[in-house]
Amino acid sequence: MPVTVAFRYDAADPYAVRMAVHTEDAAPVEWVFARELLIEGLSRPAGIADVQVWPVPRRRRHLEAGRGAVNIRISSQHGTTVLTVQATSLHPFLDRTLGTVAAGAEDALPQIDAALASWLVLKGPDDGAT
């Protein structure tokens, strides 16, 4: 069955990528998984749980060059499917994500939860205690 796969990245969640799978017959389904899993899967098998990624080159020498295709296996309680995505379409997407947040720099981003918590802490009325 033909499907459309769209990837999204948000620096507010720097470790994750979102993959929306669209078919003609159903509403889009979104999967969220580690950006590193997708990067690693371009050159070797990666993942051991609900999402697995591995390269499928057209010719052996393309494996080292990062060309060919990438299989993405997604599993849920409703079933399993394998999607094949051209590696050449993933490279520009991943390059943009790495340009936004470099690998290894994910923790350097401002901690949104801590910032929100500090903004929400309100000082109580002055009770006269010193």
Number of domains: 1
CATH topology: Transcriptional Co-activator pc4, Chain A
Strand order of the largest sheet: 1-2-3
Termini separation: 71 Å
| Percent of residues in helices | 25-40%
Low-confidence region ranges: none
How are the SSEs ordered, and which strands pair?
Layout: E1 4-8, E2 16-22, E3 29-34, H1 35-41, E4 51-56, H2 60-65, E5 69-76, E6 79-86, H3 87-100, H4 112-120
Antiparallel strand pairs: 1-2, 2-3, 4-5, 5-6
Q: How would you describe this structure to a colleague?
A:
The protein is of the alpha+beta class. The chain has a single domain, classed as Sporulation-specific cell division protein SsgB (Transcriptional Co-activator pc4, Chain A), CATH 2.30.31. 28% of the residues lie in helices and 31% in strands. The protein has a 3-stranded antiparallel sheet with strand order 1-2-3. It has a 3-stranded antiparallel sheet with strand order 4-5-6. A hairpin with a 6-residue loop joins strand 2 and strand 3. The protein is globular, with a radius of gyration of 20 Å.
Descriptive key words:
three-stranded antiparallel sheet, 28% helix, alpha+beta, 130 residues, globular, 31% strand, Transcriptional Co-activator pc4, Chain A
Outline of the structure:
The chain is of the alpha+beta class and 130 residues long.
